[in-house]
Write a structure and sequence with these properties.
With about 375 residues, the chain is of the alpha+beta class. It has 2 domains: about 230 residues, 3-Layer(aba) Sandwich (Rossmann fold), CATH 3.40.50; about 120 residues, Beta Barrel (OB fold (Dihydrolipoamide Acetyltransferase, E2P)). Helices cover about 20% and strands about 35% of the residues. It starts with 6 loop residues before the first strand and ends with a strand. The structure holds adenosine-5'-diphosphate and magnesium ion. Adenosine-5'-diphosphate binds next to strand 2 and helix 1.
Length: about 375
Amino acid sequence: MKNDAFISIRNVNKYFGSFQAIDNVNMDIGEGEFFSLLGASGCGKTTLLRMLAGFESTSDGEILIDGQPSADVPPHHRPVNMVFQSYAIFPHLNVADNIAYGLRKHKLSKPQKQEMVDEMLELIKLPGYGKRKANELSGGQRQRIALARALILKPKVLLLDEPLGALDKQLREQMQLELRALQRQVGITFVFVTHDQEEALTLSDRIAVMSGGKVLQVDTPEGLYEAPKTREVASFIGNMNFFQGTVRRNGSSEAAIETQGLGSIPISLEKVTKPDGAPVQVALRPEKFELLEEEPTGGHFVSAKMDKTAYLGERSHYYVTLDGKSEPVAVSSTNQFVARDDDRWKEGEPVWLSWSPEAVVVLDAD
Ligand SMILES: Nc1ncnc2c1ncn2[C@@H]1O[C@H](COP(=O)(O)OP(=O)(O)O)[C@@H](O)[C@H]1O
Ligand SMILES: [Mg+2]
């Protein structure tokens, strides 16, 4: 990354009347980064994006873009451009005129504009489509035109507000890969808004998880998934099992967590900062467990009872019950080597669960 703080959002709050839509947000976005804002509807993603674009002012705090305070800079003078969910392309203009729309006030010759449009059509993989009418295009093609129309202005930052939200699942997954490749190719900073965690994980270099106007955690996809810092983030990204626990320290070189359900788990010292006796939670993702028919001879394991099984094709989901834990534990495994075998796991039968202490995430108690 050329500049780790290409966009700096500092102590930003936003009020609509007495309602606080953005609550003390602080973060930096790097130059050339694919950065996503992820959170449920209403958490403030669009509001934050609109403040970056300059369509909305901050109530307090500061946004710097490329080192420049942006408060007094109107939208059209910011080095940013925005792409919306509704394709917002003009149905009465052809593709080339749609793409060139933002250039109409630029002093460029016709051949210059034509060359820029052709370059954009190549970029979005629609060469030769310039004369097509906008209403002759599919949803995916229209969204690509909208991207080209924003990129032709050579913004330093592209803001994308749920741009794939209106596409069906298959097209959307294809467009995700294309969007990622396109961002790599043009190398500009993308700030991408989505409520879809899989989409954010697929596309992003880093993700800010938002809730109720706050940023809960900013991290890489792997960081959020493997090392969530709070229960809220852990349960928002993927599925997570939680176990109540108590820190047990034996001198200063060893630590373990005594859990309700999984017994005592040794934990590396960097994962537990709390003193002996402190309450904590232990979190383990469903796929971090291995289901076994027989008692293992080593490692970490507990006996359990199969409660429910669900075959989902590429993987199966299971719920097992453990002594000492009231809610069932979710377990997931791929069916890579296993043909469908209804007889293997019978509901109500005893099973064994094993796991590696390295997969354990330690969180503060609720
Ligand atoms: N112009 C506005 N006036 C009043 N409330 C607003 C306005 N814009 C957004 N809000 C409120 O701010 C909150 C965040 O909205 P928004 O940023 O659109 O969320 P998201 O994009 O994450 O779905 C919502 O509760 C929304 O109703
Ligand atoms: Mg929104």
